[in-house]
Amino acid sequence: MNVPAGLTTGAWSIDPAHSEVGFSVRHAGISKVRGSFKDVDATLTVGSSLEDSTIVATIKTASFSSGDENRDKHVRSADFFDVEQFPEMTFVSTSHEGTGENYTIRGNLTIRGITKSVVLDAEFNGVAVDPFGATRAGIFASTTISRKEFGLTWNAALETGGVLVSDKVTISIDAAFVAPAVAAV
């Protein structure tokens, strides 16, 4: 299967200043808490076909931010990410399917040392050259996981029934990748 138009072979690096790995989770059954990870490294290695291409990402768990320092400290603690013992989350793609703008990316997500297969619905947003001459590609992808499957089991019962933190977590990735530099001849 062909790679999306405009993607050239080689290792494309994520531009962290123009990318975001975010999440949302239902809180107290009535609202959603959103946040992101500020320290993300990823490489999109484009092969001659989709089958020969890979995405590898590493996320520093201590870079978790929800906009509330008390909540952030709790989520970084052993109750959730346990950043001292598990400083990174990783994703490694295993297959890619699709054409045009719509793709399915399958891969292995590792959180707290537990690896599970996940499926991301992805949208290829195209390739553009920025005013500084860098070639960029945009990809948006999302998936929903069960946090309990990754050992994130802390919770608190509510007086009205239910629990404080939902099991379902939606992960969304809005990534800008920069093409490998072309050597002058």
Automatic annotation (TrEMBL):
Ranges for domain Lipid/polyisoprenoid-binding YceI-like: 11-178
Pfam annotation, one family: YceI
Gene3D superfamilies listed in its UniProt record: Lipid/polyisoprenoid-binding, YceI-like (2.40.128.110)
Sequence similarity: Belongs to the UPF0312 family.
Protein name: YceI family protein
UniProt organism field: Arthrobacter echini
Origin organism lineage: Bacteria, Bacillati, Actinomycetota, Actinomycetes, Micrococcales
